Amino acid sequence: LAEQEKLMLADRLGLEPGKISIIEVIDAGGPGNSIQVFAESGGMPAVLFSEMRIYNEGGAVVFNEEILSVGLARVTAEAEALVHDGILPERTVRELCPYRVMAGLEPAAGGESPAARQTRDLCGRML
């Protein structure tokens, strides 16, 4: 499964498979696995992730090609936006917003969505 994810991720991001590592964690809790993309844009490191459900509550395997494709599509789109355009995912922008506002910095690139503006406005009111 991890090898299949690795090859699909390499293909979608245009990377050599050797640039992608698999870390196996045994005896971990949770119903699936996690894909993490470590990237840098404008000198700022970021970790992008996607969770994929592999097991249901009864322990049966529910993982299929569609789940893999959807999970990879999101994380690859986010990685491409970060690397090529310097745009962070909205959820990351919203998470960083309070810290950037407290530091007197502008919100991170990608912070112009309605949800990100709302988070920034709320942070400004509280601080």
Describe the protein's topology.
Elements: H1 2-13, E1 32-41, E2 44-53, H2 65-85, H3 90-102, H4 114-126
Antiparallel strand pairs: 1-2
Helix pairs in contact: 1-2, 3-4
Q: Looking at the structure, what is the overall shape?
A: globular
- What kind of assembly state do the chains in view correspond to? single chain
Computed CA radius of gyration, to the nearest angstrom: 17 Å
Helical content class:
40-55%
Report on the biggest sheet: 2 strands, antiparallel
Task: Please provide the ordered H/E string of secondary-structure elements.
Answer: HEEHHH
The N- to C-terminal Cα distance equals 46 Å
Unreliable residue runs: none
- Give me the count of strands: 2
Mean pLDDT: 79
Structural class: alpha+beta
